[in-house]
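Incident log, support desk, overnight shift.

02:14 A customer reports that sequence design results differ from what the structure should imply. Their input is reproduced verbatim below. On-call engineer (initials T.W.) acknowledged and began investigating.
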């Protein structure tokens, strides 16, 4: 989006359309991220319900979830938000910045 604003100097209606696409798809991204992580927490809670988890396993589980959290969010953002923004930018003839 920044490339389109500063390099291309696109008209204001183009900015408005791309900003609305970003705003709408951000809401979808947040909903998908919340649902995905909630299902992950539910699964982990169910899996570890009757187990005694010591400090080292808890640290390993927390580290794994921390690593997965960032990767899942990056994938969801690219699939939900970036794809739509780039598709609309191509429709406006801005292939050089996609």
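02:41 Re-run completed on a clean worker. Output:
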């Amino acid at each position: 989006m920044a490339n389109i604003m500063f390099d291309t100097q696109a008209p204001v209606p183009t900015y408005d359309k791309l900003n609305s696409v970003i705003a709408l798809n951000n809401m979808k991204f947040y909903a998908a991220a919340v649902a995905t992580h909630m299902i992950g927490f539910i699964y982990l809670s169910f899996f570890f319900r009757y187990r005694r988890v010591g400090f080292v396993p808890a640290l390993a589980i927390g580290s794994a979830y921390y690593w997965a959290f960032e990767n899942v969010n990056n994938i969801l953002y690219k699939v939900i938000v970036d794809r739509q923004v780039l598709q609309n930018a191509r429709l406006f003839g801005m292939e050089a910045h996609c």
